[in-house]
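User: Fold this; tokens only.

Assistant: Input:
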Amino acid sequence: MAGAVIGCVPYLNARPLTRWLELAAAEHPEYELRYRVPSQLAKQMLAGKYACGMLSSVVLARNPHLSFVPDVAIASNGPVASVKLFTSTPVSQIRSVALDTSSLTSVALARVLLARRYGVTPTFHDAPPDLPIMLQQADAAVIIGDPCLLTDPMGCDQIDLGDCWTEWTGLPFVWALWIGRPELLTEPLVTLLQQARDWGVEHLPQIITEEQGSRAELAHLVEYYLKHNVSHSFSGQYIEGFARFRQELTELGLA
């Protein structure tokens, strides 16, 4: 019988958090690891299908009754590379934005930055992450994750949303955390997930080598991305960054 289900995103940025869980699966049959894109993961966790998930930070901002694993996250402090707004229109003239259907936090962040930093309030609609099609339907497009790393910008301007946030606020941005219902996010599960992060940080060179082999199309990006674009901490300024994001969401009526 399958154990408690742990849900995670299938992107490169989560590999330091999940690789040990895969390797140690036989030692921990009480847990089962599944991969889903952020928007699906959030719906399924909130519906009670997972003990916890690496959920978009906006889920915690909107559901403060949920718990999270301390000091573990997918975060950035400056350019994140895998979350971008693509536009062939000057930002001040953007009137419509196509939003990657895979995402939750990134689309919320795009709304915050466009309204608060650039003073524009375009219309938004969801779309699969295909830039040419998205730009046929809107002035700009938000794409996330590995598809973003592989997207040909087609001569468009690219706004890295992690970099844009940090330039504007002076704070890191927290994209996702291990989030779950308090009664299901037990102490043994919290310890397991923290151990997995510690192992991933310690064995990052091994993970990089593995991912370069398994993601041929991303091989040239893997090392820099995992070493410099993403962090897996949730302490200090990262907590401040999340608090600021929750404040911005609240003020815009998005949380």
